[in-house]
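Study both lines:
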Amino acid sequence: MHPVLARPARLAGYLAVAAAFGLLLALLTTAVAPGPLAEALWLGVPLALVYAFMSLAVWYPVRALLFGGIGTRGIVGITVAAFAAAALWTGLGQLWSRLLAAAGLAPGAPARFAEAQPLFFALGVFLFALAVLLHGLFAALERARAGERRALELQVHAREAELRALKAQLDPHFLFNSLNSVAALIGTDAPAARRMCFLMAGFFRKSLGLGRREAIPLAEEMYLAETYLAIEEVRFGERLRPVLEVAEDTLSLAVPPLALQPLVENAVHHGVAHRLEGGEVRISAQRRGDLLELAVENPCDPERPASRGAGVGLANVRARLEALYGHHARLEIEAAPARYLVRLLLPARAVAP
């Protein structure tokens, strides 16, 4: 549909401009063919409105030419169309002037229009060229907006594909580490290995259902983290001491599925596992204004290279935050000789229904 006709406000503004041009046309007619201004207004304003509607038809050929390439034939066609439109408008002007005279509204209109006819013809050619230019600009803007929409759609699809790939990496990474733990226990503590398998089954049953959702309540994410720690407690025993400090008002806030679990896994496998005496894995959640702060803190061996603390899990979480929230979320790491802290800062939003 024509962009002017698509919105009533645009059409009203367009007709107002056409009426103003009709007033100017009446003044020019009076200058070329002297006489009463009322007669010139009867001629100028209606003819200006008629030509305004004639000019709207330019949209469709101009749009087609712009998208297909104008070329020499297009220029010749536009030139011929401009003279044809001006001739048609002038013919309509002659007919209208006679109707005005026959109705007694403007007795001198035919003679005055005949005298001003060259002016009308020249203005008709000029207005047609102006309409082609303006419609060409409109068509170019429409094409640019369509290109922007396509680019945004491709960006969204690419981001969704990236998120799916990142989620697909998380589950196998945890699975491989857990299977290694089960394998280590089978020969020394079969009941513990069996209990770990049951816990793993519950964990994966829950996590697979969450993978299809973009966000879950923090309460569900904490359940996964606690289940994971329970799995690892079977292996580490008293060496692993979980500490949870979660504010009640944060449990209903939205977090990406499995965003916390890689941080907890990192704390266990790159922190507690390297210390003979083990240590605490402290998980905290609190609201800071319009942000939700999640933190996982663990002790670490000062002799261990610090670079080993940033594994695949942390890289995946950082990439997921970037894809989901852009600059509105971030992952911060504080690495001290005997302590490692990872902090997630997310927008504090409720889970969408």
